[in-house]
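Bumping with the actual sequence this time:
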Amino acid sequence: MGRIIEQVGPYQIEYREPGFDTMVRSIIYQQLSGKAAATIYRRLAEAVGAAGMCPQAVLNMRTTRLRKLGVSPQKLKYLRHLSELSHQGELDFASLDRMSDADVIESLTRVKGVGVWTAQMFLIFALRRPDVLPSADLGIQNAVQRAYGLENRPSPKEVEAHGACWRPWASVASWYLWRSLDGPAAL
């Protein structure tokens, strides 16, 4: 890990606000190229206008309008479910920062289309939790394989074993591992 830190340079993570808007963005960005997702998200943000990205604004939008913005039928269901849970107070973003990591994951994964990985990204990039290791993330697995010279990509359990020494700063280690994939293969 020391070699990766030296090669990558200073820790410069970019955080988002831990609210509804960030979860909407996360859902839209799932399984899309960054450029396509950014376009769809920008269109949606413009469409909600002055109301801002809030549950009621999303719920008020007609299905046909959301589809014209580029939101797929599946993600439309996810966004509606997120909006309904948030609007009804069943998912309270303001209370997430007081919850344990496990409780945050449990709360967020109640939303259709939000899995453990998305909840872990929210923990790292929105709630700024320092000790999250998304061991099922392919990027993390590939970076661990490269960093440790492993013949095969490690399983989540093997990533957890390697990551035990990164505690209580597994989120920082994860950021460095992701960045190590951006640079030369020799990293």
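The tokens above came from a reply further down the thread. The two ends are 10 Å apart (CA to CA).
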